Prior knowledge:
mainly alpha
Amino acid sequence: MLLIQNIRLSRILRNTWQVDLIMIASCTVAYLVREYLIAHHFEIPSIIPTVLGTAIAFFIGFNNNQAYDRWWEARKIWGALVNDSRSFARNLINYVDKDDEAIKRMVYRHIAFLYALKANLWGTVDEIYIKYLSEEDMKEMDKHKNKHNALLNIQSRDLQKLSKSNAIDGFRFIEINEMLTRFSDSMGMSERIKNTIFPTTYTYLTKVFIWLFVVTFTLVISQSAGIASIFLGWLIGFVFVSTQINGMSLVDPFENNSAGVPLNQITRTIEINLLQMLEEDEIPEPVKPINDEYIL
């Protein structure tokens, strides 16, 4: 997630330089075609790029709006995980009687759940959660492909044991079990966003229309601007392309990049909070921003 208010021009150019070169080449070809092939035969009506530009603006606006909705929904899901995780640990610590070891084991297992879910969403191998699990838990997890779902199943089983041993009353059992259900809901919503591809036709057609607009704009403007139309065509195209790229960077909020939801920071924050609630001595450091520009 980006932290700075102003994005450096160098960062924008790093993301768009390849497209910029292609646009300059396209504008150059369009200028040469108009200058040497069609200039003396007919003129391109200016209404064509005008209508195309208006249509593309609607396309880009719609795409960017939908992309931000996906990103914001993902951020709300993980914000809910933060709140529910704190409540889960607090209820275990204050409501469960006679079994401090079980409390610690379940809180540790929840931290492991978060790290396992994060690794799954990022598509990485992050086995930091191993240190929070017992050998018995690890053996149970090896039987499952969905590691984080397996951990929730173990949590439910341990909660049932606490109920049978009268370490927790029925009302509080229901309340804590409700939190496990909310964890499952958040997990499922995160997986839904991760596994639902943004409609390919939206992005593909927008790109095609942008290229068509850049070419026709250059053809029209070259009638009055001459060779400067190459630069002007690139400049107008740069605005559309940069806006499109900006929106599409939010389409996959669980990608491990500067535009994604900062799962590292959120998971570490929960980890620190829960360990402090357990009065542990070894507390990890918060995740720090990279180059004071973004945080993962």
